[in-house]
Write a structure and sequence with these properties.
Layout: H1 6-13, E1 18-25, E2 30-34, E3 39-42, E4 45-49, E5 55-57, E6 69-76, H2 78-84, E7 92-99, E8 111-125, E9 130-138, H3 153-159
Parallel strand pairs: 2-4
Antiparallel strand pairs: 1-2, 1-7, 3-4, 5-6, 6-9, 7-8, 8-9
Length: about 180
């Protein structure tokens, strides 16, 4: 269980307003948004207000480890849409929940809700509205990916300079092993 700072505990008891912070790291840029209106300064960065995050779906908290597909849905204007359009694959999106103090400043440290690896982006245009949907998977999506690591003496020396472990097993370097049940 996460330990909160004294300031966060006090803010929770006082029913301080909660906000969402979203950082979207794209191949071309990093965009930061928050669920309020106007700009918000936090942690040396400026977070652009969206007036409300449209939604985050697919996030759950369970004891088991599995891949979650998560969608960030954000109502956007032309400037934000232009910043988010393009290739999002390989980018990362992180969402935190934070609390505001009496000066409308974020109380350190917001709680990370979800971190996803981005895969696709779609745009929905309606009656005078635009919504960007960023879809990705939680970090456990790599459970289904094969290892790309080379198990060679050169790779071992690169990872651990001076290690001579592979020198003692030259026949196993670059050897393809197929694992099957007994």
């Amino acid at each position: 269980m996460r330990k909160h700072t004294a300031a966060v505990r006090q803010a929770l008891r006082a029913n301080a307003p909660s906000v969402l912070l979203a950082e979207i790291q794209l191949p071309a840029s990093t965009e930061r948004y928050w669920s309020g209106i106007g700009n918000l300064s936090y942690d040396g960065e400026t977070w652009q207000g969206l007036g409300g995050v449209s939604g985050i779906s697919g996030v759950s908290s369970e004891a088991s480890t599995y891949i979650q597909t998560v969608t960030f849905s954000v109502a956007v204007d032309e400037a934000i849409r232009a910043a988010l359009l393009g290739d999002v694959r390989g980018g990362e999106a992180i969402c935190w929940m934070g609390l505001l103090n009496e000066h409308a400043e974020i109380i350190p440290d917001p709680v990370e809700i979800v971190r996803i690896q981005l895969d696709t982006m779609t745009l929905t245009v309606g009656d005078g509205t635009q919504q960007v949907n960023l879809v990705g998977q939680t970090a456990f999506y790599t459970l289904e990916a094969p290892s790309r690591k080379l198990w060679t003496n050169e790779q071992q020396d690169f990872d651990y300079p001076g290690d001579t472990g592979w020198d003692r097993a030259p026949g196993n370097a670059d050897r393809e092993i197929t694992w099957s049940p007994p």
